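Ticket #4471: structure output looks truncated?

Reporter: J.K.
Steps to reproduce: submitted the chain below (241 residues) through the standard prediction queue, then opened the result file.
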Amino acid sequence: MAIESKKLLKRHPTLSDEVAKSISDAIRNRKYQPGERLPNENTLCEMYGVSRPVLREAISMLKYEGLLIPQQGRGVFVSDKGHIPSLRMEAPDFRNKQQVLQILELLLAVEVYYTGLAAKHRSEEQLQAIKKALDELTEAISKGEVGSEEDLVFHREIVNATNNPYFEAIAHFFEENMRHAIRTARKHSSQFKIFDMDVIKEHKAIFKAIEKQDAEKARQAAEDHLKNAAARLTSTENLDH
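Returned output as attached by the reporter:
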């Protein structure tokens, strides 16, 4: 059955996008030289007047573009030669039920697997980073906030724990092109308030499995979370049926 195409909404720049552009411009204008280490997180947060989750997302974008290179235990450095990835995909229309389900099918194929890898390969330091992100997400939701940025950091810390840069690149691509649509739907739906505790329980289940280094349970928890996310999204008033 043919699917009627719809004009997709253009994603508005986020605060992370703006910070990424500012740092990118500084790199291209040689304020930061090739091979130079960027200032630490606290300094950059003060410079741009943003929170750590926002800054980390901006840095993640620039890593994906090849402009920044992380060095374990040393910090983040300006690359000698950046690149722009060739893979492109239009941002989906978050109001379209079929597109949302297609997004979640793709996430199931990739995110479930790398969550299991994170459980197997994570270090103690990476586990603590995931725990910190979970705590910040829990706090945000307890304050009545959507917690979109905190949720983003939680999932990014998990993919970082795979210690596989190719999964990191794919996950970032998903963040830019797919998860944003899901978060936008969540942000604009009044019905999501009733699901807040369910969301936290699902994230905690993922963390506990990673903590125990149980790859099978981690994959199952991630799969349950994504399937529940699909159910929540497709039950909102924001989606066309």
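Triage note (M.O.): checked the attachment and the full token line is present. Residues 15-78 form a domain with the Arc Repressor Mutant, subunit A fold (CATH 1.10.10.10).
Status: closed, working as intended.
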